[in-house]
């Protein structure tokens, strides 16, 4: 009698599981959730039901609710898998990049082609820019979005203040991103730091003229103009930028003085 009861329960669970899988395939995620919640209540120790419930919730865009289910599966099945990738992506979609790192690092062991770009995004979002840059560079080898990834790598090297590495990438991308003011600013700033203000000035001026709202663009353009002896041209940039960055007031005072505006220089200093 007991065997017959167990067999009936097993068949019922198998039927429910098939119903849940069909609901996911047909994008009926609410129906799938109901099925797998029922199975979780019946067999709370079965990690597969927790995984499938997590997939249903994740597919419905309910990432916060999906995470405990996915994590319960990973605790029982810690070997690298697609669920690590899904968990990392859920954290990224919730704007929690630092939390995404551990599962995405595991996911990279499962499938580097799929997970490497997302891991780079997590490193960048978490402020670990050198690791982000190196991860994006590694992703370029897979051949997808090569220019975009190289651009992201260059940006992250720049954020990490690794200017020689940034310069090499910026130089290779200059033609492709000539219309992007953020690129002009970052490349110009890199050249100014490595080769002097005159080298970076054309790029900084272009960024400041096209997109003066970029943080730092007008300030760096003004400092570069001042450094090459063009104080009068530097003044409008430094006046605008110093309203948000008081550290530029000293440069502005010097520009006023070199332009013969002594009273303005004294007031600003």
* Largest beta-sheet characterization: none
Distance between the termini: 94 Å
Order of helices and strands: HHHHHHHHHHHHHHHH
Regions with pLDDT < 50 over 5+ consecutive residues?
1-11
Give the overall silhouette.
elongated
Helix segment tally: 16
The number of distinct β-strands equals 0
- Percent strand equals under 5%
Structural class: mainly alpha
CA radius of gyration:
28 Å
Overall pLDDT confidence: 92
Helix content range: over 70%
Structure in words:
With 269 residues, this protein is mainly alpha-helical. It has 16 helices and no strands. α3 (47-59) runs antiparallel to α4 (63-76) and α9 (146-159) packs antiparallel against α10 (163-173). It is elongated, with a radius of gyration of 28 Å. It starts with a helix and ends with a helix.
Task: List the SSEs and their pairings.
Elements (H helix, E strand, L loop, with lengths): L1 H24 L3 H14 L4 H13 L3 H14 L5 H12 L3 H14 L1 H14 L3 H12 L5 H14 L3 H11 L7 H15 L1 H14 L6 H11 L3 H12 L6 H10 L3 H7 L1
Helix pairs in contact: 1-2, 1-3, 2-3, 3-4, 4-5, 5-6, 5-7, 6-7, 7-8, 8-9, 9-10, 10-11, 11-12, 12-13, 13-14, 14-15, 15-16
């Amino acid at each position: 009698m007991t065997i017959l009861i167990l067999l009936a329960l097993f068949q019922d669970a198998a039927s429910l599981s098939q119903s849940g899988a069909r609901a996911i395939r047909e994008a009926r995620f609410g129906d799938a959730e109901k099925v797998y919640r029922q199975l979780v209540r019946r067999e709370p120790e079965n990690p597969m039901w927790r995984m499938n419930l997590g997939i249903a919730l994740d597919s419905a865009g309910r990432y916060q609710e999906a995470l405990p289910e996915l994590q319960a599966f990973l605790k029982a099945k810690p070997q690298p898998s697609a669920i690590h990738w899904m968990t990392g992506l859920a954290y990224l979609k919730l704007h929690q990049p630092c939390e995404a790192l551990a599962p995405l690092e595991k996911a990279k062991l499962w499938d580097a082609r799929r997970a490497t770009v997302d891991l780079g995004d997590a490193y960048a979002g978490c402020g670990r820019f050198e690791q982000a840059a190196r991860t994006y560079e590694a992703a370029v080898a897979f051949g997808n979005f090569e220019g975009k990834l190289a651009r992201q790598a260059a940006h992250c090297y720049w954020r990490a203040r690794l200017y020689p590495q940034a310069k090499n990438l910026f130089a290779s991308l200059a033609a492709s991103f000539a219309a992007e003011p953020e690129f002009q600013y970052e490349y110009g700033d890199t050249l100014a730091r490595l080769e002097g203000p005159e080298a970076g000035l054309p790029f900084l001026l272009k960024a400041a003229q096209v997109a003066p709202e970029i943080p730092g663009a007008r300030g760096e353009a003004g400092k570069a103009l001042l450094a090459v002896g063009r104080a009068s041209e530097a003044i409008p940039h430094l006046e605008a930028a110093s309203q948000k960055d008081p550290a530029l007031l000293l440069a502005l005072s010097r520009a006023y003085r070199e332009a013969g505006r002594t009273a303005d220089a004294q007031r600003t200093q």
